[in-house]
Amino acid sequence: MSPSTIDIDPDGELIIHLGDESTGISHSTASVGTNPDVKLDQTAAHKGDATFDSAVQLRVSMKHILLACRRAKTVFGGAFQESKPEADGSHHWRLGPYFDSKAFITVMSIIHGHTREIPDQVSLSMLAAISAVTDDLQCHDAVWFIAKLWLRKLHGTLSVTTPDLPKWILVSFVFHERDMFRSVTRVAILHSSGAITTGDLPIFPKIVGTSRL
C-alpha cells in the first residue's frame, strides 16, 4: 500500500518521506546517580522494539525548507542523490523511521507559516518529539518563538520524576533553556537511582555524560 501524502505545500517541489515504523533508541540508558562518571550507552533499536505507524509523505516547499533548515542546505546544495530531481520531477528526501509524524508535520507547518495549523499548546512528550525534529533538521530559528511559548505554558508543570527527566533534558538543551537544563540534569545525576532510559529520544552522550552541570 502506498504511503499517504500530506500537502503542506500543494505546489511543493520536495517530497519528504518518513519511514514505515517509528523506531527509537530503546536500549539507550543514561547511568545516573552519585557516580560522577555518568555514561550514556546508545544502542540502535531493534525492529522488535519499534512502534509501527503508516508511512507518511509530505509535499513541501523546497524554498521554505532551504531557508529554515541548515541540514537541508547541506543535503541539497551538495553532491548527494537528493540534490537531483527524480523521474516524477520532484526532489525526494528519505529521512527514515526516526521521527514522530505529528511532531514532524507540526514543524513543517511552522516553517511554512501555517499558523492556523499550529496548536496553542502541546504536551511535554510532543514538545520533546518536536525538539528531536528541530535539532535534526537544524531549524532552531524557525521553531524558536513558538517553542518558547509552549515552554512557558509547560513550565508550571515541570516535574522531576524519572519518566519525564529525559524529555525535559532534551527540550531544555535544544531550545537553550540553560537554567532548566542545569536543574533537570542535576536532579538526574544526584537523585536518580539506576538508569534512566531515553526511549526514542536522541539525547547525546555529552549531555548527560558529565558531572559539570
What Rg is obtained from the alpha carbons, in whole angstroms? Answer: 18 Å
Q: Can you summarize the main beta sheet?
A: 4 strands, mixed
Please identify which CATH superfamily we are dealing with: Potassium Channel Kv1.1, Chain A
Poorly predicted regions: 21-53
Instruction: Tell me the helix content.
Output: 25-40%
Q: What is the N-to-C order of secondary-structure elements (H for helix, E for strand)?
A: EEEEEEEHHEHHHHHEH
- Overall, the morphology is elongated
Query: In the CATH scheme, what's the topology name?
Result: Potassium Channel Kv1.1, Chain A
Organism: Hirsutella minnesotensis 3608
Protein name: BTB domain-containing protein
Summary of the model, kept short:
The chain is α/β, with parallel strands linked by helices and 213 residues long.
Structural features, described:
The protein has 213 residues and is of the alpha/beta class. It has one domain: Potassium Channel Kv1.1, Chain A (2-Layer Sandwich), CATH 3.30.710. The chain has 8 helices and 9 strands. A 4-stranded mixed sheet has the order 1-7-2-8. β4 and β5 form a beta hairpin. α3 packs across α4. The N and C termini lie far apart (49 Å). This is BTB domain-containing protein.
